[in-house]
Amino acid sequence: MTAVPATAPLATDVLARTSGENFPVASHLFPRDVRPHLLRIYGFARLCDDIGDDAPGDRMALLDWLSAELDAIFSGGEPSHPLLRDVATTVRERSLPRGPFGRLIEANRRDQAVTHYATFDELRAYCALSADPVGELVLLVCGAWTPQRGELSDDVCTGLQLVEFWQDLGEDGAMGRVYLPVEDVDRFGLTVDDILHGVADERFRALMRFEAERTRRLLVRGRALAREVRGLTGFASRLFTAGGLAALRDLERRGLDTFSTNGRASRARRAWTGVRELVRP
């Protein structure tokens, strides 16, 4: 067992930051026996993101350390970080593969070097690293994964990731990141510098209406996952999809400009719009 690097996020800090976020709150909708496993998976994803976005010092070195922690788990060893020791328990009890965990690390490696994506296909490939593995792991933990359900889960997870990108244009821009595909930015007569400088004119609004509609199509297609998976897991899937569609509608109501303000609606508004979306056909 190697020592935890001094700059690695503490397990207590990671878990404290996740306590009020959407997935940990929604995890109570899943069967009781899988909830601890889901929270450990989310904790791992949050740890990856905390390293990739906020850790001081050499983030690539920290991500290499995190990959070595995974190696320890999957070789039957003992990881050094307390959060990873909990993840090891889930991996062994649920027979989870290494691949989805490794892709979450790779997404954060990419964030250190890539600040924008030329095409939507490239952006979706990034989402296949940063978002889709969480849905795969959830289905595996719940004993509900099949290839067809995996494709629907990818639609939901990528759609939710895109909603988050559109909510955080200003925050990501402050880090020099633009997740709007460059081909779309060009098509609507804008430049990456315009996005980084928060240009929010009619060209920008037309661009964002285009992105919002494409995001909506993914989430609507992903609704079928709730029909594929029965019980509480299927109901939770429908709520996640409804929440993403509700957040998208709220963004549209506010003009899709999230350069100067956070694009996240209040919890009460999210709940109300989510309920309205849930009862739609």
Topology:
Layout: H1 11-18, H2 22-26, H3 35-54, H4 59-74, H5 82-94, H6 99-113, H7 120-130, H8 132-141, H9 147-167, H10 169-174, H11 182-187, H12 192-196, H13 202-222, H14 224-228, H15 231-253, H16 267-278
Helix pairs in contact: 1-3, 3-5, 3-6, 3-8, 4-5, 4-6, 6-7, 6-8, 7-9, 8-9, 9-13, 9-15, 13-15, 15-16
Top keywords for this entry?
2 domains; Farnesyl Diphosphate Synthase; mainly alpha; 70% helix
Describe the structure.
It contains 16 helices and no strands. It is globular, with a radius of gyration of 19 Å. It has 281 residues and is mainly alpha-helical. It folds into 2 domains: 103 residues, Farnesyl Diphosphate Synthase; 166 residues, Farnesyl Diphosphate Synthase. About 4% of the residues have low confidence.
What count of helical segments does DSSP give? 16
Portion in beta strands: under 5%
Order of helices and strands: HHHHHHHHHHHHHHHH
Count of discrete structural domains: 2
Number of strands: 0
In CATH, the architecture of the largest domain is: Orthogonal Bundle
Overall outline: globular
Main sheet attributes: strand count, strand direction, barrel closure? none
- The N- to C-terminal Cα distance equals 52 Å
Instruction: Tell me the name of the CATH homologous superfamily of the largest domain.
Output: Farnesyl Diphosphate Synthase
Helical content stands at over 70%
What is the CATH third-level topology name of the largest domain? Farnesyl Diphosphate Synthase
